[in-house]
Design brief:
By secondary structure, the chain is of the alpha+beta class. The protein has four domains: about 200 residues, no CATH class; about 220 residues, no CATH class; about 120 residues, Immunoglobulin-like (Sandwich), CATH 2.60.40; about 90 residues, no CATH class. Helix content is about 25%, strand content about 25%. The chain has 18 helices and 33 strands. Strands 1, 2, 3, 4, 7 and 8 form a six-stranded antiparallel sheet that branches. The radius of gyration is 31 Å and the shape is globular. The N and C termini lie far apart (about 80 Å). About 40% of the residues are buried.
Length: about 700
């Protein structure tokens, strides 16, 4: 299947209130934002509107609801554990709609809407005052919807029709808020024309898609091809490292895309065209996936960089050196050190994250420096009442660029590259609204050359870091030391201690925890009969590090074999230690939008206040609001009323400044900035008068 990219543009025809679920002391609900602070429209909200339209369309046109809905959006698996009850994958992927030209418009795209409720007597109901942040009318958003549907199939037509048919977003739609129009690029057909085409294909809605299947599974040779994967995320990613409990409504993402998720996505894409090849790859000893780790925020940053999970032995000083303003980095398995003598008294702290190898330089990309996006979701579709909403919170990793490697049988490498390269793919939870992006693949001519970096003459090809958990066999002591358990699983002799200048450090450093697996097909030893969650297993955690007594002679085979069992679940992956970091990776922060006037707003505001000190703050504020909307005609009309239709007293307040305002309103946004300064000065004068009278 070829992925279609539907570029859409959404224009607001009225103020919209797509709430984020979080507020402040004075604002009840703020609008959702991306990690740079710019307003966005959540992909989950867009999908919800499409879902509701599909439901309504099926009811009106008489389409069979279940296949019509799941054919476009899929449906989640059911917790029955039965074969075939594992859900239907969505063929549609939504991404957040982003504000167009955010650096120019973001500062002007937000405002506040305050409302109250009326009681049965027609007066304001007590405690009903509510203020919501809103996105201003005329704001434009752009984004993509990705679809695996064949062009002009009923699924493709239904999706396009749904996108063109809903006309409002956010809350308060029944009050006229959020009214909008949507344009789909290169779609010239009207909704009426699309509906006629959909009606003509009504009989196809219940038919299953035909997929090419091989007669038997192919047999692969023993040769291995290595591929480098680069994933550019277009939407936030949520890959939880720990399972959520039944009484928790918070889902938090780790900073990696696990090997099991990468393997599952690749095999799923292969299965769409040939299930026999996908099954043969899954069982092949030459097939192994590594986790995808973040390398930066743009594809340009990712060029020539390879990431490795930070080992437990790696440390960074809490404070930078006062003279150089740089942090001190240490790694005891490379250079044993005396902790009392480092960083001029600043304590060393372990930092989870990624080491980025760039030529001969290693940078530390800390997990804490990777931006997260918080969102709240209230699922109510299909529930009995609005009070049954399943409210939950998600913390996702902001869109970044990720890299990893893949080993596969040489016989199928070309097919994998053709299937994956430049294709849309999604990872993690809620893949129809999160974790989507573009995957690119390139061959690695020699894995020996790819990992030819040197850390020291005596330690090259001897130090390795776990990239994914290592399964501890059940027969081992449940509460044994993690170092001893890992040592027994490594297929080579481990160095007991590393020494340097009389300082000694252990040659293996590890930690362990309990890991729960999950398999949507219900395969494996399950925890219970009702769910597809696999039983708990003790594992050695990623970041554990070990030093071998002798350098590895065949690096490709050593990496391909990994450590322990569970390769088919993405366990046991290792990579060479990239070396000690010398600098901390810092992303270039996006500057939050600030309203700036080309004219000196402060000077203009002071000038206006000096010319008309008696004008009330409320009148200045009203004039500024009209100007901020770029409505110079409305602002001028208001000014005319103040100078011609009001009393002589009001006229006297405005007469000396009227001509100045008329000229200034030719540039409404600059005028609005000056009016805010003028209003602040007017308020300040009134407060001073009150204090003087007191």
């Amino acid at each position: 299947m070829t992925t279609q990219q539907l570029n859409i543009e959404l224009s607001l025809l009225a103020d919209a209130m797509p709430g984020s679920g979080v507020g402040t002391e004075t604002i009840n609900d703020l609008i959702p934002r991306d990690h740079s602070g710019h307003p966005i429209i959540r992909a989950s909200h867009l999908k919800g509107l499409v879902r509701q339209w599909l439901i309504d369309c099926a009811a009106v046109r008489g389409y069979p609801l279940e296949p019509f809905l799941s054919g476009v959006l899929g449906h989640p698996g059911r917790s029955t554990g039965e074969e075939g009850a594992d859900g239907i994958e969505s063929i549609t992927g939504f991404e957040d709609l982003k504000l167009q030209k955010p650096d120019e418009t973001s500062a002007y795209s937000r405002q506040y809407v305050t409302r109250t409720s009326l009681n049965k007597h027609g007066t304001v109901q007590k405690n009903s005052l509510r203020t919501n942040e809103a996105i201003a009318v005329d704001s434009k958003f752009g984004g993509c919807v990705f679809s695996l549907a064949d062009r002009n199939s009923w699924k493709d037509i239904a999706l396009r029709l749904a996108l063109l048919s809903f006309n409002a977003i956010g809350s308060g739609r029944n009050r006229g808020a959020g009214y909008c129009s949507i344009h789909v690029e290169n779609e010239s057909r009207t909704p009426g024309q699309l509906l006629k085409l959909l009606d003509a294909k009504k009989g196809e809605i219940t038919q299953s898609a035909k997929v090419t299947r091989s007669a038997e599974r192919p047999r692969f040779s023993q040769k291995t091809t290595w591929l480098e994967l680069c994933f550019t995320a277009r939407s936030p990613i949520c890959c939880p490292e720990y399972p959520t409990s039944s009484n928790s409504n918070i889902i938090e993402s780790g900073f990696t895309i696990p090997a099991s998720a990468v393997q599952g996505a690749i095999l799923t894409m292969l299965d769409r065209s040939d299930s026999a090849v996908a099954s043969a790859c899954f069982e092949s000893p030459q097939f192994r996936c590594w986790p995808l780790l973040p390398v930066g925020f743009t594809p340009e940053e990712a060029h020539g960089v390879f990431p490795v999970r930070v080992p437990i032995s790696h440390r960074m000083s809490k404070l930078p050196d006062p003279e150089t303003q740089k942090h001190d980095f240490r790694d005891s398995v490379i250079e044993p050190y005396d902790w009392r003598t480092v960083a001029k008294g600043s304590p060393l702290k372990g930092s989870d994250g990624v080491l980025l190898r760039k030529g001969n330089t290693v940078e530390l990309f800390r997990s804490g420096d990777m931006p997260r996006i918080w969102s709240a979701h209230g699922v109510h579709n299909g529930l009995a009442t609005a009070s049954d909403r399943n409210l939950y919170q998600v913390t996702s990793l902001a869109p970044m660029v990720f890299k990893g490697i893949l080993a596969c049988p040489e016989d199928v490498a070309g097919q994998i590259v053709e299937t994956l390269n430049n294709q849309y793919v999604a990872f993690g939870r809620s893949r129809s609204v999160r974790g989507g992006g573009t995957l690119t693949v390139k061959a690695i001519p020699s894995i020996e050359v790819h990992f030819s970096w040197r850390i020291s003459p005596s330690l090259d090809r001897r130090v390795f870091v776990l990239q994914s958990p290592v399964a501890v066999p059940d027969e081992m002591t449940p509460f044994g030391a993690a170092e001893e358990q890992l040592k027994s699983l490594i297929p080579a002799t481990v160095e007991e201690f590393i020494q340097l200048d009389g300082i000694t450090a252990p040659g293996i450093q590890a930690s362990a925890r309990v890991l729960f697996g999950w398999n949507r097909h219900g395969k494996g030893s399950k925890a219970d009969r009702r769910h597809n969650r696999l039983r708990a297993r003790r594992v050695i955690t990623p970041g554990s590090v070990f030093v071998l007594q002798e350098p590895v002679s065949d690096l490709a085979t050593f990496l391909l074999n990994g450590i322990g069992d569970g390769k088919q679940q993405g366990l046991g992956n290792i990579l060479p230690h990239p070396g000690k970091a010398s600098i901390q990776y810092k992303r270039q922060q996006d500057k939050l939008p600030i309203i700036k006037s080309k004219d000196a707003a402060g000077k203009l505001g002071i000038k206006l206040h000096e010319m008309a000190p008696a004008v009330s703050p409320s009148q200045i504020g009203h004039l500024g609001a009209l100007a901020e909307r770029e409505s110079d005609s409305a602002a001028l009309e208001f000014l005319e009323r103040q100078t011609k239709q009001r009393s002589g007293r009001t006229f006297d307040r405005w007469k000396d400044v009227k001509s100045e305002l008329v000229n200034l309103l030719k540039h409404p946004k600059e005028a609005a900035a000056a009016f805010r300064v003028w209003q602040d000065l007017a308020i300040g004068d009134r407060m001073e008068d009150k204090r003087g009278k007191a």
